[in-house]
């Protein structure tokens, strides 16, 4: 296929990345998404790569399960939300907020980029599910129950040794069961990325609406606890949901050991050894990290876009084209060689076309599947 034909197809698609993190100081002069930045996603890079829409994430790292921890988590969630809100309010002529699938299509038809909101880790909800509706009213379209580390709702796929977690998935807690019901009632999608296997399957069984995995891989392709095995993929599909394959190096394939060692040394030297450290780091420190990280990756073999698409191929073969989507996890550690930022989004379409996917298939992978699930979940609310 000619490059021009591939680009024409890409331009006709509605492309959605279901997981985009935001850095400290997002949508301030220190990190202004209105211009090109050190981030993997900003408004110019979305335009350059033909990425039409993204779920921007209210992320909270996992802390202690006590009131002090919940207070700090709520503050962190508010900070993330305010950053996304600043972007949407600061550039209304360039990006519009969407809460529904119809909103997404309408904003895109207006010629603007589309911003949606997801919540990664339900930890800030505390010992209640009363705030679910509040977050939905503010635009949150999906909620993932856990992150790295078990919490009050259930088990994580990655227990936290620092938090004293046992390497055991006890499933949904009673509060986790209540959260499933609250999400169904509010019409917000349940996200199974980051949850433990048993916890996720129990949530699936309890939910009366389809669920998603916003950014996970195929475990049969690469064995990592953050990835989904074939039975999990099938369970999501059987419930009408969608699993978004993620372009996160260490979930896609083997990272070169020398590169891994060099990156660990860099993080240690800069004091960036945890997610919390990254969230509290100054913009200048993050700039320094980004430059040196790029130099390290350029000097070593990298996990590739082709390897990422192997995950997509496998998931499609297991559950069918209607239940698979795409995610970058950009600015949260994501990226592979060939799709290492929003500006390289076209490369994904080109690789999929090379493998024989038709335009109708790409429309589903890039957006129609996740929009179908949004519609269904919202129609089943109440």
Provide tags for this entry.
single chain, 382 residues, alpha/beta, TIM Barrel, 2 domains, six-stranded parallel beta sheet, three-stranded parallel beta sheet, 46% helix, 12% strand
- How would a crystallographer describe the biggest sheet? 6 strands, parallel
Low-confidence stretches: none
Assign an overall shape.
globular
Number of strands: 9
CATH topology of the largest domain, anyone? Answer: TIM Barrel
Instruction: From the alpha carbons, calculate the radius of gyration and give it in angstroms.
Output: 19 Å
Under CATH, the homologous superfamily of the largest domain reads Metal-dependent hydrolases
Strand content: 5-15%
Helix fraction bin: 40-55%
* CATH architectural designation of the largest domain: Alpha-Beta Barrel
Give the number of domains: 2
Round the mean pLDDT to the nearest integer and report it: 96
Global structural class: alpha/beta
Q: Helix and strand succession? A: HEHEHEHEHEHEHEHEHHHHHEHH
Question: What CATH first level of the largest domain would be assigned?
Answer: Alpha Beta
Could you give the distance between the termini? 48 Å
Name the quaternary structure. Answer: single chain
Number of helices, counting only DSSP H or I runs of 4 residues or more: 15
């Amino acid at each position: 296929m000619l490059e021009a034909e591939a680009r024409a197809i890409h331009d006709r698609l509605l492309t959605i990345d279901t997981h985009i993190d935001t850095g400290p100081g997002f949508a301030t002069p220190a990190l202004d998404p209105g211009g090109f930045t050190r981030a993997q996603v900003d408004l110019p890079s979305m335009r350059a790569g033909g990425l039409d829409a993204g779920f921007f994430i209210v992320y909270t790292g996992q802390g202690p399960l006590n009131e002090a921890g919940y207070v700090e988590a709520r503050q962190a969630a508010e900070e993330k939300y305010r950053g996304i809100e600043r972007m949407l309010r600061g550039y209304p002529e360039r990006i519009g907020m969407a809460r529904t699938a119809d909103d997404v299509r309408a904003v895109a038809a207006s010629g603007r980029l589309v911003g949606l909101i997801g919540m990664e880790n339900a930890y800030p909800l505390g010992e209640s599910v009363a705030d679910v509706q509040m977050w939905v009213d503010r635009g949150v379209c999906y909620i993932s129950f856990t992150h790295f580390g078990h919490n009050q709702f259930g088990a994580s796929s990655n227990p936290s040794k620092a938090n004293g977690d046992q390497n055991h998935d006890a499933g949904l807690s009673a509060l986790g069961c209540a959260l499933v019901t609250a999400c169904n009632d509010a019409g917000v999608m349940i996200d199974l990325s980051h949850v433990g296997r048993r916890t996720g399957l129990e949530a699936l069984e309890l939910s009366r609406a389809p669920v998603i995995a916003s950014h996970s891989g195929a475990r049969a392709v690469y064995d990592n606890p953050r990835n989904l095995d074939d039975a999990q993929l099938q369970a999501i599909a059987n419930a009408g949901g969608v699993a978004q394959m993620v372009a996160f190096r260490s979930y896609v394939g083997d990272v070169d050991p020398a590169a891994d060692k060099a990156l660990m040394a860099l993080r240690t030297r800069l004091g960036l050894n945890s997610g919390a450290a990254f969230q509290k780091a100054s913009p200048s420190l993050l700039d320094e990290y980004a430059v040196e990280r790029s130099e390290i990756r350029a000097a070593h073999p990298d996990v590739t876009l082709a390897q990422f698409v192997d995950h997509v191929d496998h998931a499609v073969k297991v559950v069918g084209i209607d239940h698979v989507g795409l995610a970058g996890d950009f600015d949260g550690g994501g990226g592979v060689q060939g799709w290492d930022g929003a500006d390289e989004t076209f490369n994904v379409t080109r690789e999929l076309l090379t493998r024989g996917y038709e335009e109708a298939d790409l429309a589903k992978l890039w957006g129609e599947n996740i929009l179908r699930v949004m519609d269904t979940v919202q129609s089943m609310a109440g």
